[in-house]
Structures are given as structure tokens and as C-alpha cells.
Amino acid sequence: MGYVNLLITLAVAAIAATLAYYAWDAATLLRRIPKVYKSNDDLPKETEVAQAWTSSIFLPKAENSFKRIAVGVNGNVDMIVKGSKLMMMLDANSNTSKEQSFDHSSLRSIKDLQETFKYYLSKGAGGERYMDTFEEFHKVLTVAKNIPSTEYFIGGNGALMAQKLAVMMPDDGKVLLGVPVGPILKPLLHPLLVVPDKLLVNDDEYHMILEYAKGEKWAGSEAPIASRFIFSHDKSNSQMTAVETFLTSLKQFQADLIVLSGFHLLESNESHFWKRRLAEISAQLKSIAKNIPIHVELASMANTNCMEEILKQVLPVVDSLGLNEQELWMVCQIGGGPHCTGKDLSAPPSIPITADILHWMIEKYGNDGSRLTRIHFHTLPYHIAVVNDTSSWKNQASSVAAGTRIASTQACDDLDGLKPHKMELRVSGDIQLSAQPDVNLKPVTFDPKNPIVSWQRSRAMFHFSPVLVCRKPIKTVGLGDSISAVGLYYSGYER
Asked: Is residue 256 among the annotated active site residues?
């Protein structure tokens, strides 16, 4: 009996020792087991997407990441004002349904401003226009400065993208900012941003951001969604005066990624000016080594001739392009792409239509010696990145998902983390991958637990992610710039 008791004691001790070992080494065991997202049918779809993002978004390999990023060339001070409030302050009798709604390609007067603002508010679309005369712009600027709720922020695509990148960069990373920087803008910038001395100027440029909320009313029109209308009278940025200093600084800075913006502001000049300026910039970009990728961020334009010249002069000498639905429609119309006739060009296109246009763009503008191999498209309910499958771009599934995640958090001003209960998923059911009947691509059933969808079409690799749309957006300005900056930061590039 004593012998049996001894055996039992030894067995218990062995089991205890084994359990103790595994308890002690639990962290090691967990590291070896891949994370598996377990579904919970009781979770809201928005929470499922947010949880899936957490486990599926990751940075590129260190050797493929960007550590020295140069960003230019437009920067200014944004004055953010409630749109309907400013319209009322400019003209107390203007809030009537008699005010006309018209999309002026440029603004010659306050009346033009009011009519164009009403047009964009009624569409729920973002827009940007140039005010031709400084005197009229100064009148509006003076009124806006006297509105107590007016706020001052960093403005300009270049400055906003650089600011976002500086916040994310590791300790050994650097960001060069090649934009005109005045006394109001300078203290708003991240302290790690490097600004060439020649770009420190005495006077800031101001851009007016007229924000409107969903349901906001003015002059008989009501906004279907929240957005903003931007206008300015900006000589430095509209002539892209910072380009030469910016590009000269690149050699000493030793950038491994170049980000360019501000081309849309050229359209405020006469055609002979922007044709010459684009040719000059294109010639300088051609001298940049091909192992240093160049990204161009487009923005809202009205002048199709100027956009056509940008497509002709700039796209062949850059590697990556960022744009939203307004620019997508314009490029499609100019180049004769699919689905561009008889459509409401102010509305976000459906997923299959966007996929067809992006495929057409990468085929048309990424051929015949062109450097273009990546396009990042963003619209309110979803984003798509498409790359040439033989290109050096890597980690694009994480890149597009990281862009959608920042769109969700920034719009709701929840940068400390996603708050899914504040957001709405607008993608569901089967996702058609093409609207062209002769394209043999099977639809994909959208699964919130696996929201990043990838597919291939000829030489193009597509990556899709939905946006968790903020139900009550707080910040709409600079959203596209943050999306593109984050998408680039999460991109890898194999040299």
C-alpha cells in the first residue's frame, strides 16, 4: 500500500511540475500561436471591422520602410469657420431661397462665393476655388477674423501630410517640409519638421475653410452630409514658388520618399503660366533617381485643361497618385475612361465603377515608360489602392486599411482609439469587382471579420477596405491628406 501511495505521489508531482512549466512559459507559448480572430455574432458589424483591423494592419519590413520623407510644396494657415455663419455675417439678408446655386470655376466677388458655397452645400460635396481679387478676399478675411468661433490650423496638403508623418515617424526618421512658412504657421508645426531657411517668410497665406454639418441649412438648401468648401487668394502656393528651393534641398536631405502637392492651385493663373510651370517642374522631377519614389496628391479642380496638362506633364514622372472621387471623375472624363458619361459626377462612385476606372487609369497612365505604378483612391464609404503587380510597392493591404482607419478616427476626433459605436459601416453584401460585363471577376461576399479584400485584374493588384463612417463628424478638413500620409507610411518600397 505504501508503494502505491509513493507512485501516486510521484505522479502528482510530475503533473504539477509540468503544469508549472507551462504556466511559467505561457507568454512564450502565446507568442508561437498565431492570433486568430474569433467571431461573435452578437458584436456590431462596426466592432468586428475595428477588431479585424487591429490584427491585420502592420508596418512594412524595416528595410522597405521610409525613414527620410520630403514633403512639399503648399502650406498655409487654415481659418476654419462655420459656413452658414460666415455667409450670414457677409450679408444679413442672404439667407433666403432666392440665392442662386451655381458652381463658379473662380470667384470674382462675394456673390460668386455665396452661389458656389450654396451649390456645394446642397450636394454635400467638398470643393475648392480661387478668389481672383485680393480686395474681395480681404473683406471676407476681415469678417472671418471677427467671428469668435473662428479657429486657426495648419493648412495646405503638403504641410498637413508632413505634420501627420512627423507624428508617426520613429526616432531615427526625419521629415523635410518644403512650403512657405510664416510667423503664424511656424509655431503650429511639429518641432521635428525640417524647414529650409529660404522658405521662412514674413507673411502667411490664409485659406478659408467653410465647414458645414449634415442637415445644416442656408438659403433654402440643406447639406445631405457633412463636408467643407475652401477658397483662397494665395500667390505663393498658387505659383508653386517653393518648388525650386524644395527640390534643391533634397540632395542634402537624402530623402527616400518624395511627396508633392499643390498642383491644383496652378489653375488660378493664366494658361500660359501653368503650362510653363508644369513643364519646368516635370523637367526637374525627371532628374530624380528612380529608386526614390515620388507621390503626387491631387485636389479639387475646376479647370479641365489644367488638369489635362498635369496628367500629361506630371503623371509619367511620378510613381504614386492620391485622389478622391472628384478628381477621379475629372481624370476619367478627360482621358475618356469607362462609366464617365451621364453620371452624377458629385456623388461617390460605386465600388465596381471605381475599380474599372482605376484599372483603366493604371493601364493608360502607367504604360510607355511612365513611372506610375500606384494609385490610392479614397471616398467616404471605402478606399481602394491599386498597384502594378511587378512594381516595388509592398504592404498595400495594410496601407489601404490604415488609411481607412485614420479616416474613421480623425473624422470623429478619436485619435486615442476607434470608437465603433460612433461609426457606421456602409459596405455589405456582395462586392462586385467590375461593372463591365466582359470582365470575368466573381463577386466577393463582404465579411466584417475580414474587411480587407484583395484581387487581381490583368497586371493590376487591388486592395479594398471599408471606412467606418463617423456618424457626427467633428473634423473634415485635411482628411484626405491624413489618409494619403498614413497610407504612404504603411507602404513598403523594395529598392
From this structure: no
- CA 305 to chain centroid: 24
Alpha carbons 80 and 144: distance in angstroms, whole number: 9
Rounded Cα distance, 294 and 305, in Å: 23
Cell of 5: 501511495
Closest CA to 357 of 375, 344, 369: 375
Answer for the pair 370, 316: CB distance below 8 angstroms, yes or no: yes
**Residue 422 in grid coordinates:** 460612433
Rg (CA), the chain: 26
CB 245 within 8 Å of CB 194: no
pTM over 0.85: no
Order of strands across the sheet with 127-130? 127-130, 227-232, 206-212, 76-82, 151-155
Single-letter amino acid, residue 420: P
Quote the pLDDT of residue 22.
35
CA distance 339 to 357: 8
Residue with cell 476619367: 332
The more confident residue out of 445 and 130 is 445
Grid cell at residue 85: 455663419
* Three cell numbers written together for 44: 456590431
Residue 208 CA to residue 187 CA, distance in Å, equals: 19
pLDDT per residue over 290-341, tens digit each?
999 999 999 988 899 999 999 999 999 999 999 999 999 999 999 999 998 8
User: First-to-last CA distance in the chain?
Assistant: 74
Give yes or no for residue 379 having a pLDDT over 60: yes
Distance CA 85, CA 91 (A): 10
Reported as type and span, the H/E element at residue 249 is helix 243-253
SS3 assignment, position 470: strand
Q: Which of 78, 319, 356, 481 is catalytic?
A: 481
Query: Per residue in 53-76, pLDDT tens?
Result: 999 999 999 999 999 999 999 999
Other CB atoms within 10 A of residue 11 CB? 10
All three cell numbers of 291, joined, read 529608386
Residue whose cell numbers read 525627371: 286
CA 452 to chain CA centroid, nearest Å: 18
Please say whether the beta carbons of 193 and 163 come within 8 A: yes
Could you report the per-residue pLDDT of 147-206, keeping only the tens digit for each? 999 999 999 999 999 999 999 999 899 999 999 999 999 999 999 999 999 999 998 999
C-alpha cell at 204: 502667411
